[in-house]
Write a structure and sequence with these properties.
The chain is α+β, with helices and mostly antiparallel strands. The chain has a single domain (2-139), classed as Helix Hairpins, CATH 1.10.287.370. It has 2 helices and 4 strands. Strand 3 and strand 4 form a beta hairpin. The protein is rod-shaped, with a radius of gyration of 27 Å. Heterohexamer of two alpha and four beta subunits. Residues 7-55, 89-137 form a coiled coil.
Length: 146
């Protein structure tokens, strides 16, 4: 009964590919969320450059949808995360350029992840098709044996 073993192997391969695709899809979602966050920071800094007041008032989020009123004491510099828990102070233009580069890196990672996901989904489809063909062959061989 070789075809039963082949079918079991295909079913296992299908499950493995599905699990890999699910992980990639989750990774893609995280990449998109992180990119959106960096984009928001960049836009915030770009808008801050347009503010004419020397010490503009802002709302500082403190959690649970609550805020405190605050004042920006230095609107020419920003402290940006550079990864691994480190942050550096940069002037606004350098901070924006740094964030634009991060966005480009996210775009590249998102593109590669989408390609890998499409490739995996194609493999999943091929395995499913093989399994279906094998099942049809089995069904035909059973009906012939009567």
């Amino acid at each position: 009964m070789m075809s039963q073993k082949e079918l079991e192997k295909l079913a296992y391969e299908y499950q493995v590919l599905q699990a890999q695709a699910q992980l990639l899809a989750q990774n893609l979602e995280l990449l998109n969320l992180a990119r959106a966050e960096v984009q928001t920071v960049k836009e915030t800094l770009e808008n801050l450059k347009k503010v004419e007041e020397e010490r503009p008032e802002i709302l500082v989020p403190i959690g649970a949808g609550s805020f405190l009123k605050g004042v920006i004491v230095d609107k020419n510099n920003a402290i940006v995360s550079v990864g691994s828990g480190y942050a550096v102070e940069k002037n606004i233009d350098d901070a924006i350029a740094f964030l634009e580069e991060r966005i480009r890196e996210y775009d590249e990672a998102i593109r590669k992840t989408q390609e890998a996901l499409a490739e995996l989904e194609k493999k999943v489809g091929e395995v499913a098709k093989k399994a279906q063909e094998l099942q049809q062959k089995q069904a035909m061989s059973f009906s012939v044996k009567k």
